[in-house]
Amino acid sequence: MSRLLVIRTAIKLALSLAAVTGYGAPATLLDRPIKSFGAQDAWVVHLISRLAVLSDVPFGIEVTRGHLEKKFTINIDSGTVRDALTALVALDPSYQWKELDGCVDVYPKVEPDSPFDVVIKEFTASDITGYGIVTKLLKVPEVSSYFSARNLTGFAAFAGSVGSLAPRIFVSVHDQTLRSVLNNIVIAAKGKVWVGTYQDKNGEHFLRIQIS
Hints:
- By secondary structure, the chain is α/β, with parallel strands linked by helices.
- Helices cover 33% and strands 38% of the residues.
- It has six helices and ten strands; from the N terminus they run αβαββαβββααββαββ.
- A hairpin with a 2-residue loop joins β9 and β10.
- The protein is globular.
């Protein structure tokens, strides 16, 4: 076999491997490219939801207490998911982010007793909708005990198809935080983002968790 033929064969093999392995693709979800990402006077939930759609990256966001109504204006002509999150944190330094379980999670820098850090020993659910699975998740002993001890009421919401059109989900996890379980759920539901928001009303405290 000639040297030229060997080189050509090696190049073809390298190209084949690149096609199979995704060589040359972004190394992390944070490096996914985005184009023309912008919003005017938008809530953080809307910003993250739009970013999830544009980048095709699943997100989780725990909204900083008291910041639900805070609005942001961001304009990025081109960049990456990381660039968009950097711009967000420059506007509101209360947030940080990390890549976890195939999602990008955005959450408060200071939340020493976050319900999303509660470790769930075991959770399994099958053939169930996103709304149903979050409702079930909020009833597991570790989560319900946390809520009871802090006079916090959790409830589920789901934005998407309902009834027979809603995707059916299977999730089985062990020794994972509530945050990680929700990451698994949003991926299983083929969703874009899960959102946790704190609300206080008439002296009562609520945590709303939505899959969309």
